[in-house]
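Ops channel
N.P.: pipeline sanity check, posting one input/output pair.
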């Protein structure tokens, strides 16, 4: 938190990454205002905001910004800033599942249906909510913060993260359909960025 210029104390809810209409940003803001959280609990919005969100923040949430309870990094973040934001949070209100948050041992809040909720329910990595149900969302936030202190990564989560790793994806590319290794004859990994989950490959040969 210190590296991000944030106060060390209190608990931190966060929304990290591209903050667009998919992420229920306005619903999270409304839930945070309505929630019975502690006075020093804060909400961090870290990522480039849609322009109309900035107008809403100035109009409806200026008081929270002035008191430091709402923190806004309205910009594209570097890789290290993203990692620091995940590490600084107590709960990530991603609505979408966020594997970087899970890898940082930060529980997530996702929507109540779809793949994200399936991951959360199966691996117990956070909470599910209908973000359009203000009462339910506001009630969940303090509960999620309270429970975050006892969150522990399980062996099942370790397997989940390994499965979604860049190395595992690269290994999958380097196998033929029959399961035998390619040995570089079909594709070649040119560049791997495990920190951001990026992989670049090229075709270098044809299968016999």
């Amino acid at each position: 938190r210190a590296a991000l210029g944030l106060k060390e104390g209190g608990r931190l809810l966060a929304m990290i990454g591209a903050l667009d209409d998919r992420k229920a940003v306005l619903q999270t803001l409304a839930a945070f205002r309505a929630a019975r959280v502690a006075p020093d609990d804060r909400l961090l919005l870290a990522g480039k905001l849609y322009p109309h969100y900035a107008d809403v923040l100035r109009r409806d949430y200026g008081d929270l910004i002035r008191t430091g309870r709402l923190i806004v990094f309205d910009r594209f973040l570097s890789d290290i800033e993203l990692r620091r934001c995940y590490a600084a949070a107590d709960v990530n209100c991603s609505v979408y599942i966020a594997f970087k948050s899970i890898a940082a041992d930060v529980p997530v809040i996702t929507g109540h249906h779809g793949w994200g909720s399936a991951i959360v329910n199966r691996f117990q990595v956070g909470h599910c909510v209908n973000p359009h149900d203000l009462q339910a969302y506001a009630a969940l936030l303090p509960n999620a913060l309270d429970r975050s202190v006892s969150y522990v990564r399980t062996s099942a989560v370790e397997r989940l993260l390994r499965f979604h790793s860049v190395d595992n994806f690269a290994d999958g590319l380097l196998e033929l359909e029959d399961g035998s290794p390619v040995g570089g004859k079909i594709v070649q990994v040119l560049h791997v960025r495990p920190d951001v989950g990026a992989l670049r490959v090229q075709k270098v040969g044809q299968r016999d």
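N.P.: looks fine end to end. Confidence is low (pLDDT under 50) at residues 182-208.
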